[in-house]
Write the structure tokens for this entry.
Amino acid sequence: DAGITQSPRHKVTETGTPVTLRCHQTENHRYMYWYRQDPGHGLRLIHYSYGVKDTDKGEVSDGYSVSRSKTEDFLLTLESATSSQTSVYFCAISRDRFNSYNEQFFGPGTRLTVL
Amino acid sequence: AQSVTQLGSHVSVSEGALVLLRCNYSSSVPPYLFWYVQYPNQGLQLLLKYTSAATLVKGINGFEAEFKKSETSFHLTKPSAHMSDAAEYFCAVSVQGGSEKLVFGKGTKLTVNP
């Protein structure tokens, strides 16, 4: 298994509170991604990073920010959590842009509930 | 822009029966195509991928998929379903030439009945 951990694995919080999710990798991969998974929507990309301090938005980035100060860590922050952000969040990594030899590996997920 | 359509959000088969999960893609350039499996309360695991080397791709756990450009399809099959195949399956597309993102379908939940 790819060395990807996510913390916390489960979190319950209240509307309006800030929340930070952490993704940590031991593979030294260049790309890191945050997705959210919701029933009927599959996986949707929130933000991704293509290097330290280099990040870009995905399709559902509103209400989320990210930071990557080290190769191994990618943080996802909900500045003021809302109930619509209740979801399962997955981190993923890939060595480089997709080619014949490259693929994306996923972490175990974080289940976030916003009350 | 690329997109993926998975036909059927739920598929139910009997143990030992053929598994067929459908995926159609849209891409203006040659795609890379992937099938991932997600077991309950777990992350996604790569089943197989198409990268233009061969149109019939074999993956783990006896699954295979065939890339059909004329039909823009990449359906996933397994000749004989096993109870342990019960999971959710996701098709995803990227584009050849250096894309850094995957676009996922909405998933198909497979139930295997004894």
